[in-house]
Amino acid sequence: DGTLLAIGTDSSMVQVWDVADNTARFSLEHPDWVRGLAFSPDGALLATGDDDGTARVWDMATGELLAELTGHSDYIRGLAFSPDGTMFATASDDQTVRVWQVGADGTFAELAVLSGHTDWVNAVAFSPDSTLIASGSDDASVRVWRYNGDGSFSEIAVLSGHSDYVNAVAFSPDGTLIASGSEDDSVILWN
Prior knowledge:
Layout: E1 4-8, E2 13-18, E3 23-29, E4 34-39, E5 45-50, E6 55-59, E7 65-69, E8 76-81, E9 87-92, E10 96-102, E11 108-115, E12 121-126, E13 132-137, E14 141-147, E15 153-160, E16 166-171, E17 178-182, E18 187-190
């Protein structure tokens, strides 16, 4: 909702600030460097990922740690919530994307592990309708998966065109394009 700003640091801390009055609201401790974070669409939750491979979910009303989600065996570099708020995804140096279900009852559970990249996964994004996930990797590819509605995902595309690491992916607001940014000094728009 634009009222909070979260900053992850190499000092194993996430600082959450109230934008309106420029005051620190919470300091959220982690055991290692924080490399990725994402707010839920309603701003009620913050998901963080750090070098120990654990995703953590925090309550933004209280600063309370709600869940520690394990499964990755290496750094988490990117996180994204689905626009409908029912899932979030984590991108890791273990070459996978993990998708986590956000339960209406406040529970969190691993929904799927998306494999296929052959190097670190740096970035992840959901389509506006929450049915597609795109990921970018050091293998210079963008992979796209479709949510099948039953807890499973199907890989539907491997997009090749970059000559170096892909560090950023994003869907256009209407969901018809994917943008990818690479260390090869290019941005590609995929149809």
